[in-house]
Amino acid sequence: MSSSTQSIEEAMAAIEAAAGAQRTRPARPHRPKKKPFRPGRALALLVVLLLLPFWVLVRGATALAVETGAGPWMSLVGAVLATTALIALYGFVAGRRLGLRPGKWLPRASLAVVGAYCVYGLLFLSPRQFKSASVQETYTSLHPAIRLALATMVLVDSDAVITDGARQPEDYGRMNLPVNQRSLHYAQESGYVHAVDLRTIGRPEWLNTATRLYLRSVGLEVLRHTGTADHFHVYLPVR
Fold first, then answer.
1. How many CB atoms lie within 10 A of CB 55?
2. What tens digit of pLDDT does each residue of 153-181 get?
3. What is the pLDDT confidence band of residue 7, given thresholds at 50, 70 and 90?
4. Rounded to whole angstroms, how far apart are CA atoms 168 and 187?
5. Contact (CB, 8 A) for 235 and 221
6. 233: phi > 0 → left, psi -120 to 50 → alpha, else beta; which?
7. CB atoms within 10 A of CB 141
């Protein structure tokens, strides 16, 4: 066999060996395409994450008070702990994504934030949120869950007005109404008033609807009364 023929055969063998190796080479793993960034969806998720702690706090307080019969302050403590855990989880996830290692201070800081908000909601509300100074004086007589619900509502609805809170039997006579011995505007066994009235007159109907939906979502009952003046009668059910 001539040297040229042998060289050709060796070249052909090398080509076939290379082709065989190419066929047996494992395929590269398929990399899924990155999902496109959607600003609208991201914004909606951000809004939900921001509002969720407020909802957990208020809904937790009303649920514990109504469903379990817990006292006003025990229901508030339970709601505070649940909200603190949620905010601490936010901080933990955010820290991990940023490459940080959250320390033991995170739960304490979360509890401080929730506690500070509760103090604000339970004790302080702008005078513009009350129909009169006499109504404002009765604010702290409301059940803590109701006060937290109202304080949270006015964060986004600064024009909301409380028209009535605690009452006495003689107040019904001044309003030319029969005395209601079972009114939730009286102090209940919990030691607090379980009802409050909100203004509906002069407000857009869509805003009244949104107010009703919010209050019901956090566990309060809402009735629209038109006896003396159009208003929302908002109350925490008594177990």
1. 16
2. 999 999 999 998 887 765 665 665 655 66
3. low
4. 9
5. yes
6. beta
7. 14
Nearest alpha-carbon partner for 65 in 54, 52, 56, 74 = 74
As beta bridge partners, residue 130 has 162
How deeply is 162 buried, as exposed, middle or buried, from its count of CB atoms within 10 A (0-12, 13-18, 19+)? buried
Half-sphere exposure of 73 (CA within 13 A, CB side): 2
Which H, E and C letters describe the chain, residue by residue? CCHHHHHHHHHHHHHHHHHHHHHHCCCCCCCCCCCCCCHHHHHHHHHHHHHHHHHHHHHHHHHHHHHCCCCHHHHHHHHHHHHHHHHHHHHHHHHHHCCCCCCCHHHHHHHHHHHHHHHHHHHCCCHHHECCHHHHHCHHHECHHHHHHHHHHCCCCCCCCEEECCCCHHHHHHCCCCCCCCCCCCECCCCCECEEEEECCCCCHHHHHHHHHHHHHCCCEEEEECCCCCEEEEECCCC
- The position carrying tokens 């706090």 is 57
Q: Which range among 15-24, 75-84, 86-95, 196-205 shows the weakest confidence by mean pLDDT? A: 15-24
Q: What is the pLDDT of residues 124-148, one digit of tens each?
A: 899 999 999 999 999 999 999 999 9
Q: Look up the pTM and report it.
A: 0.78
Q: Which residue, chain included where needed, has tokens 């989880």?
A: 89
